[in-house]
Structures are given as structure tokens and as C-alpha cells.
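Researcher: Hi, I'm a grad student and pretty new to this. My advisor asked me to get structures for two proteins we've been looking at. I'm not sure of the right format, so I'll just paste the first sequence and hope you can take it from there.
Model: That works fine. Here's the first sequence with its C-alpha cells right after it:
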Amino acid sequence: MNFRSDNEAGVHPSILEAVSRAFASGSAPSYGTDQWTQRVERRLREIFEKPDLLAYPVATGTAANVLALSCCTPSWGAIYCHPEAHINVDEANAPEFYTAGAKLVPIPGPAGKMDLKKLADTLAQPVYEVVHHPQPAAVSVTQATECGTAYDPDEIAAIASTTHRHGLKLHMDGARFANALSYVGCSAAEMSWRAGVDVLSLGATKNGAMAAEVVVFFEPELARTFEFRRKRGGHLFSKMRFLSAQLEAYLSDGLWLGNARHANAMARRLVAGLTTMKGTQLLYPVDANEIFVILPSPMHDALQDAGAQYHPWPSDRPGERAFRLVTAFDTDPADVDKFLSIAKGAAKAA
């Protein structure tokens, strides 16, 4: 009953097999000039319906985010994001380091989503060309958000319109892009460049890969310095084929979406059971595979005694204990049912 994080999940067998086949193939050209990396870019062009996009594999989500953002902003720039965004909370000084000093500016909003009016008001401030202020350069949205909610294409397009009106670039942290896409039910193109996204950090690690992410530029000119930045930052892999083999398998035969659908379904299964129990309450809507829920103390204690694993989460209301549960591509329905059975027993005994 491990619901701590989809980062703790295993690796999908198809992805492991793909890496093994790449190993068995012997030697191959290095530094991303191999056939696996070329096939991944071609596949992404098909998925996103964008024949001129450029794709660059990296091994971590942090690298994908900060290298992408470094192409969007000068060192004196400002990057606008939600206060809960991974780049603001969980990536230490990496954004500042890789951008050589750009400033993160939080724009709050409910349920992990940036408030459009607050963003528009901030971008309308008279700071442009004023030497005393960081210069607006980029906006970063997270899909799905850190609260487990998903932007629909219209919401993204509205943010993109405001962003582009002021000459900024729109970055999307898509660590759980597949989960959001599975929930929303549109095409990958509609959720990205057709809605105005300029560059996407497309995650795979949380959704079945071993260690593989890919930076997808929908504007080729924006990638002009990326290869130098990736090399300077130590993220150019000599044996790139082993990253790309993971991505190729991930994107083949709908595996990435199938994995996401399963994770989302397990989250809905948990929610359907928990919300019928007295004393439980969701903090946010559950769009993807993250659940933020208040659990009564006896229920929490019983689950802990039974070995269930999940993270505590801050609650705005005194006296309430909130927690985060995350499902994954390999979450066993039996574990979900066992968790719910223990919680139900504790609720009846209370």
C-alpha cells in the first residue's frame, strides 16, 4: 500500500525490455546522433502533429525544466509561476543557477492553478525596460498541477494569450502531462502548442520510465542555444540511446497514455471509497493521480499501523490532518481495496 509518490513506482517491463534490446544491439553513435533518439523525435512530431518540433532527451525533470527555461529568459529576467510549482518549491536553486540569475515570481491561484487576472495584472505593471526591475521573460505552468488538478486547453490558451501579448514565452512543466491528457481527453497538440505552449518538459519517469524526460520545443528558434546549455550543464549523455530507448518504448503503442489511465483510475477508485467515509474531505478536485485528503486521526492511525505509506500535507484549517496519496502505473487494485477496507473499519469503530 505505497501511495507516497509515483517516483517510487517501478519501471514498466516494456521499457526495461527496450533498454535491454538497445544494450544487445552493440555500439552506436554517441551524444544523441543515434537512431533511437532520431526515432523519438519523429514519434513526437507525429504525436504532437508538429513536423518541425525539436526534442532533446534528458534524465531528470529538474534538468528538463531549468534547461528549457534557460532558453526562454536572460539572466536578468523574471519567470512567473504558481507558488506551489515544482520549480519554486522542489528544485532548490536550479532555476536560478541554469538561467544564471533569473528571478521566480509567484502568481497564486486556487487548486494549484495560476489566477489569470493576477497574472494579467502583474504583467501589465510598468516594469518593462526599467533597470530597477527584473524583466518579464517567461511564464511556467504545471500540467497536471502540484494539487492534482488539470488545465483544460481553453485555460492554457488564456494564459498563453496574456503571456504572448507581453512578448513572453510559455513553458509547461509536464511531469504528469500524460495523466492530465488522459483526464482532459483532448489531443496532445490541443493541450500544448495549439493552446500556445512554446516549450514543454514532457515527463516519463513518473509514468513508467527508469529515468527519462524530454524537452520539446514547438518553436525551433527557441532551441537555438539548448544544445550548448545542456552540454554546459552536464546533461548531454554520451550513450544517449539508453535514454531514448526508454522514451521510444514509452511513446509506442499508446503505452504512455495507458499507464496514465491506470494511475488515474486507481486514484478515482481511492476517491470513490474514501469520500463515502465520515470525516474525510478532499482538499482539491482529483483530476489526475494525486489525492489531497483530510483523514480522521483514528483512520490515519489504523492505516499507519497496517503499513500504508503516504505523505502528510499542510492544511489551512487548524486541527485537521491532511495527506497526499499518489497512484502510479503499477498500482495494484488489491492495494487500493485493502487501504479502503482498513479505512472503512476505522471509520466504523470511531
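Researcher: Oh nice, that was easy. Here's the second one.
Model: And its structure:
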Amino acid sequence: MATDKKVQRRLKIKRRIRKKVFGTADSPRMTVFRSNKHISVQIIDDVKRVTLVSASSRCKEIDSLKDTNKVAQAVLVGKMIAEKAKEAGINKVTFDRNGYLFHGRVLTLANAAREAGLTI
């Protein structure tokens, strides 16, 4: 029952954030999903309703590194999404934390994407 309350609370926060955060062609929305084991990120154009670029800790390059912890995985995913975004011609994004607090793995992923050259 406690996890159900947690999920409902996060979804309520997510809806509140999504009222303000909207991805356009100039600045698409970068949304993060965090599970207990993995982290994934997508860059979405909300006008066309299409995912432009995505990256996850479940991809072969990151998943093959068995000894990395979750924070290190978030750094690798952040760098990977920034590289893929540059290849797609995306330099600036709007960050959507998806109801999660902006610390820990979410913050680490955002900082790694910034360091790799993505403007958030």
C-alpha cells in the first residue's frame, strides 16, 4: 500500500511539471525514467508527438559493464544521449525530471549531458 501512495504522489508531481514543460522543435523535451535497476532518457518533440533520440542503461555498451553502479550508469547514459542528440542536430533541450527529485541519478545524468555539450 505504501508503494501505491508513492506512485500516486510521483504521478501527481509529474502532471504538475508537464503543465509547464513542453518540447518544441527548437528545444525538445528530455524526459528521464528511473527504475530500481536502470535509467533511461528520451528526447521528445511534443508538437509532432515523436521521440527523436533515446538512450538507456539497458543498451549493450552499458549493460556489458557489470561492475558499474547506478550512478556511473547514469553518467554513461547522459553522455550517450548528448552524443546521439548532437548527431541528430539537437543542441538545446528542456529537462523534464518526470516527477523525480532533482538529485542523485537524475542530477548526475543531467550534469553528464551538460558536460558532453548539451544545453539544458
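Researcher: Is there anything I should tell my advisor about the second?
Model: You could mention this: The chain has a mean pLDDT of 92.
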